[in-house]
Design a protein that fits this description.
single chain; 309 residues; alpha/beta; Arginase, Chain A; nine-stranded mixed β-sheet; 10 helices; 40% helix
Amino acid sequence: MKPIRTAYSDAYYCETPQPSMRKLSLVACLVKERGYAKLVKPEPVGRKELELIHQKRYVKSVMTGKGELADCAFGFWSESYRDGVLAINGGNLLAAKMALEDGIAANVGQGFHHARAEFGAGFCTFNGLALVAALNPDLSVLVIDCDEHAGDGTAELTVKIPNLTNFSICGSRMGCRESERSIVRHVERRDEAAYRKHLREALDFAASTKPALVIYQAGMDPHEDDPLARSQMTGDFLRYRDQFVMETLALELALPFFFVLAGGYQEPMAEKLVPLHARTFEIAARVKGQIRQKAHFKPMVQKLDSNIL
């Protein structure tokens, strides 16, 4: 087992009504303590980068806290919320860079996959998955989204960003549109066979298209005890899911990837939700330990300063 470099900043934490940003510091402390992750501090993204994918009016509203769009994603606005979102998206950029250097990396944060160009929704403010692709137009980026809810915002942004492809496996489609670069596979309640089939399909797609970078949304809201879960998957199945995806990407396909935590809404967090996210890190650390030789990957265009915590 080898710890994976993982983007995290204390700025990620915000007192959100649901666990979305409250859980992040707990996860970071646990995975560092257990030796699964080496935490690396990202620089927050700025307005110029965000305006590559989001409308200026929307970005300005969130940055200043003024206007009707400022609180559209979470239902409230505060400086700590804004700063957390900017830091988390900086973490996605840093995790992408580290994945291309190490083969595996992570961000203790979300991809914000419901965020569209014009507004945020579903606890998602600025789309950090699409931002990675937009800032690195010479790299093909594939998102394998295993959140309970399909990445509708990412799907819409594939139209604007030609090097971005989204493959969602979900229990709730969220009106997610399909296209040549937006694939959606729906799973009914407790249908593990269908979920396994769709995972294989997503990884076969990765094998055939050979993206320069894969982003894996390791959502824990499909869990059977999650209040927002329709697919109702067991903890054992989600362990299988994470292991299958990571082993296939790293050991079989040799594709660099990083993962984000994505959804998970169980309370109390420390007892129910945080251990589920920590297990994803444990699996990643074990997979990294199986990589015998580091591959040489093309450097990212985007350069970010970082500091080991």
